[in-house]
Write a structure and sequence with these properties.
heterodimer, A: alpha/beta, Glutaredoxin, 7-stranded mixed sheet, 5 helices, globular, B: mainly beta, Outer membrane phospholipase (ompla), Chain C, 24-stranded antiparallel β-barrel, two-stranded antiparallel ribbon
Chain lengths: ~170, ~575
């Protein structure tokens, strides 16, 4: 009987081990503005929400969205701890312009460079801007394509939803 | 007891198996996207469309599905052009499985078979990519291995044959006009900051890279001896110190006679250097580039952007508004000298000019000239660029007086208060349309362009946006009587005005009406209005756009690669979604 219990227990443990929650963040490595490798699949924010927003230096609506996000980013961080990664899909014609533009416009987001469109393809982005919201465990909860004036408010409502759930 | 144990064991195994199958399923992720662009064409004598040539309808569509499970991923993309939209290459007509791949990558080694998109450095010797809006896809079908033996070191090798519309990939199935060679390449990159512990957090940054790519092609020519192996190599360095960054890449290619360079046997060279400085609120970047005979295709008879193995990045400013983007520069692979300076600055909050939110200003200047070419002396002096010879010699730093392009622009971006936002830009443009678009006889475009983009937030949900644009050509039309035979050179020329009004209801709806008016065309019959109305509906990752009206003849460019769009009239619909 003891053996039986042990085996049952083992089976349960095995089942339990496999029932980990999975992340929707793909296993793609990009570079940040300092040239450091960043594996998207391993992005974490201490259980707080993560936003990935695809943009390009030549994308007008993206820049509007980023200016709007930047105005409220400090407040959002304070209230929800959210972290925004702005993924530039600029290719080699404009990668050198990304950092001067980001600094020149005074944006506070973490910038990632998707020079070869690897993440863009993995996340099925057709046209920027395209914004993804992940909860603290890396699960995709919301995505939105395009930018309409005031769109950041809807994103924030979604962020608040998951930030509240945590509490 | 034994029976019991066996029973329990099998039960445990079953549960275990089930569990692992379940976990396999749980780790499986399927995602994908779809897009359909369709247009219904109508006769419109007003803009010269008197005949549809039997084409009332065009549709471009794709659907792609990706599967990932841990370190494994795979995907397919299905495409249909039934038939292709006007302005896309007719060779696209058809449908089928255009792209598939399978990848395993555990961080140390990554292997891919199928269609590969990758680039070495800035792309001077190798870049495969896909751009749906251009109908452009030069994916390499074959295999790729990526090795990361130690932190900061990446080694890559690729091997395969490039996509050419729907042409077969096997040599035995190919015709003379879709024969293309095998492309193989290796690349190494060493990031010193990641691989040397003491440099990990250093302010000094350095990385080095080098690549070699070659194509193996069949010589089908009866006039010339075409080299069956053509090699190209590139070296690059990136340096950074504090707020400063410098990068440069140099590429060299052995003789590669082709339809693009008129079958000359000169070697190719390219150089791109960038220097930038950035700190919070200020950023500046200066770039210079030299290109000499650097078209590199896996089919030497290829035209336009067909089967490009490499990518020569244009460095000029990319405009996105309607009139400023009417004349977009595209790279001249046979030779160009280019420079560009971009400055971004935010006038701080709380100053007289900065106001409550700060004012963002940007300045950009870019210019491209031809290189200087001299005749080759081989006993006698040969005619310049004569096919079958070395073609020309060219001093590396000499700049020709022949200017292809110049763009000087200044932009102000200002949030006035919670409700009003304003962007304005002035552009001074010089565009050698004869060289860039191949319009022989068409005079150079010298234009002043301006736009004003005002957004007013009515309330939390609704907003209005007004765009006013003007393009004024200084010289082309003033008091000039265009003769009948020259008329076609003046299509889309002269002064333009553009207005757009957009009403948006966040987060789903957007309605816009726009008119583009070629009011100052030197030819009276070309002074047309291009009126369009557009409705867009967005729901999460789905976008539906319906547009009715006229489209003017123009050029759509992404990344310096362009396609011309003929004038059209009708109804177009775009639906895209991803999951």
């Amino acid at each position: 009987m003891k053996k039986l219990m042990t085996l049952l227990l083992m089976a349960l443990v095995v089942t339990g081990l496999h029932a980990q929650s999975k992340s929707d963040l793909p296993n793609v490595t990009l570079k940040d503005l300092n040239g450091k490798d960043v594996n998207i699949g391993k992005l974490t924010n201490n259980g707080k929400p993560i936003v990935l927003t695809f943009w390009a230096t030549w994308c007008g609506p993206c820049i509007k969205e980023h200016n709007a996000l930047n105005d409220v980013y400090a407040d959002w961080q304070e209230e929800t701890g959210v972290k925004i990664y702005a993924v530039s899909i600029d290719d080699s014609r404009s990668t050198a312009k990304v950092k001067p533009m980001v600094e020149g416009k005074g944006w506070d987001f973490d910038i990632l460079l998707d020079v070869n469109s690897d993440l863009k393809r993995a996340m099925n982005v057709s046209n920027p801007p395209h914004t993804f919201l992940f909860d603290g465990s890396g699960k995709l909860v919301y995505q939105h394509t395009g930018y309409i004036e005031g769109g950041e408010e809807d994103l924030y409502e979604e962020i608040l939803k998951i930030a509240k759930k945590k509490k | 007891m034994r029976k019991h144990i066996l029973f329990v064991l099998s039960l445990a195994l079953t549960i275990g198996f089930k569990a692992s199958a379940q976990s396999f399923m749980e780790n499986s992720q399927v995602s994908g996207s779809f897009q359909t662009d369709a247009q219904y064409y109508m006769l419109d004598k007003g803009i010269g469309i008197n005949d549809l040539n039997g084409k009332k309808f065009g549709i471009n569509g794709f659907g792609k599905v990706n599967y990932t499970n841990g370190n494994f991923s795979a995907g397919i993309r299905f495409e249909a052009f039934l038939p292709e939209l006007n302005g896309f290459r007719s060779e696209l007509n058809g449908l089928g499985l255009a792209n598939f791949f399978a990848t395993y990558d555990n961080g140390f080694i990554g292997m891919t078979v199928g269609d590969i998109y990758d680039q070495f450095g800035c792309g001077f010797v190798f870049r495969t990519y896909e751009e749906w809006s251009l109908g452009m896809d030069n994916a390499l079908r074959g295999a790729r291995i990526v090795l990361r033996p130690t932190r900061g070191v990446t080694l890559k090798a690729v091997y395969g044959r490039q996509r050419y519309f729907w042409a077969p990939y096997l040599e035995r199935d190919m015709n003379n006009d879709d024969q293309r060679g095998i492309v193989r390449g290796v690349d190494a990159e060493w990031d010193l900051n990641q691989s040397i512990a003491s440099l990990n957090d250093s302010e000094f940054k350095m990385s080095l890279g080098g690549s070699f790519v070659s194509k193996k092609q069949n010589d089908l020519s009866s006039f010339y001896t075409i080299p069956e192996n053509v090699g190209a190599a590139a070296a690059r360095i990136n340096l950074g110190y504090g707020n400063w960054a410098f990068s440069t890449e140099y590429a060299y290619k052995i003789n590669d006679p082709s339809a693009i360079n008129n079958f000359i046997y000169k070697e190719g060279r390219a150089l791109l250097s960038s220097l930038s400085y950035s700190q919070k609120g200020f950023g500046a970047v200066l770039q210079v580039k030299r290109v000499d005979n650097m078209s590199f295709k896996s089919m030497y008879t290829g035209k336009q952007n067909d089967l490009d193995i490499n990518f020569i990045p244009p460095i000029n400013y990319t405009h996105t508004h309607s009139l400023p983007s009417m004349y977009t520069y595209s790279t001249q692979p046979n030779g160009e000298m280019a420079a560009q300076l971009q400055i971004n600055y935010t006038i701080p909050k709380g100053t007289a000019l900065g106001g409550k939110y700060g004012t963002k200003i940007a300045f950009n200047m870019s210019q491209v000239n031809d290189i200087v070419r001299d005749s080759v002396k081989f006993g006698n002096t040969m005619a310049l660029n004569q096919a079958g010879t070395l073609g020309n010699t060219s001093k590396f730093f000499a700049i020709s007086d022949h200017r292809f392009f110049r763009d000087i622009n200044f932009e102000v971006d200002k949030k006035i208060n919670k409700d009003w936002h304003l962007t304005a830009q002035y552009i001074n443009l010089y565009y050698d349309i004869e060289t860039i678009e191949g319009h022989a006889g068409s005079p150079v475009v010298k234009a002043n362009i301006g736009f004003l983009d005002v957004t007013y937030k009515i309330n939390k949900k609704q907003s209005l946006r007004l765009e006013l644009q003007g393009l004024w050509e200084n010289e082309v039309h003033k008091g000039y009587e265009v003769e009948e035979s020259e008329k076609k050179d003046y299509q889309k020329r002269g002064d333009w005005a553009f207005a757009l009004l957009e009403y948006s209801i966040n987060p789903h709806w957007s309605f816009s009406i726009a008119d583009k008016w070629n009011y100052g065309n030197p030819v009276e019959e070309y002074r047309d209005h291009y009126f369009t109305g557009t409705i867009t509906y967005i729901h999460d990752a789905t976008r539906v756009m319906l547009s009715v009206g006229r489209q003017s003849e123009g050029v759509v460019c992404v990344g310096g690669v362009c396609r011309t769009v003929p004038a059209s009239s009708g109804v177009s619909l775009t639906v895209s979604t991803s999951f």
